[in-house]
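Worked example 2:
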Amino acid sequence: MEYITLNNGLKMPILGYGVYQVSKEECQQCVMDALKVGYRSIDTAQSYFNEEQVGNAIVKSGIPREDIFLTTKVWIEHYSYEETLASVKESMEKLQTNYLDLLLLHQPFADIYGAYRALEELYEAGKVKAIGISNFYPDRMIDIASFSKIKPMVNQVEVHPLHQQEEAKQWMDKYNIQIEAWAPFGEGRGDIFNNPVLAKIGEKYGKSVAQVILRWHIQRGVVVIPKTTHIERMKENFNVFDFTLSQEDMNLIADLDKKESAFFSHQDPAMVEWFVNMVEERKKTSQF
């Protein structure tokens, strides 16, 4: 395993396992499988509704808690100072841990400043080893980095070969905030697993397209948390430290960049309304 060092000196595995869209029914087994394969970084979130299953898997694995880098994220519903503190306490109970390695604000909406103050307090109290943000575009990232007491250590954003976030990464590098990729494969959009450029590069190294993509991320210094529910894919995704892409191949992949999200823009008013409506609907159904 390779590690990156966050701006507070904490070491973080550059490759982890993400549980977004992993159901409650399969999550516990999937996390146990990932840990068995060798993953030591697990990424979940309040809005994934599987923190409890992640916690069960970690306990049942028998692996010492200190050997696992555990991340969760606060959802918009809990964005205020008091609500964030309460929700994180609940998350830690579900995860069966008395500390978190990384805690992120999941979306750049609502009372991010009150919520971030709560993250700072948890960090200073030693309950969280690192804090950060997710889906913050450079302008919002610079704002919170410049006017908060503690600069974020991580910004988790959409990054994959079809949306490489080169400009955003440059801003993160400037502020010494680690970039982390959700959907490192773009969830397969754009038929990426059959991309001829990536397939040809894979043939050259005897690797799959998925392995090429992960290796490309790693060589860019991007933390990745690929998700799969199949243990064989977990093994495949983990086996990316025995080869290095040439600069020529890195350049070929750079040319695939479409410079636009494969999903949506957080700056689209209609999408902001979608998030607002989702929060309201979840209030009605008491999912939080």
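The first strand starts at residue 3 and ends at 5. DSSP finds eleven helices and ten strands in the chain.
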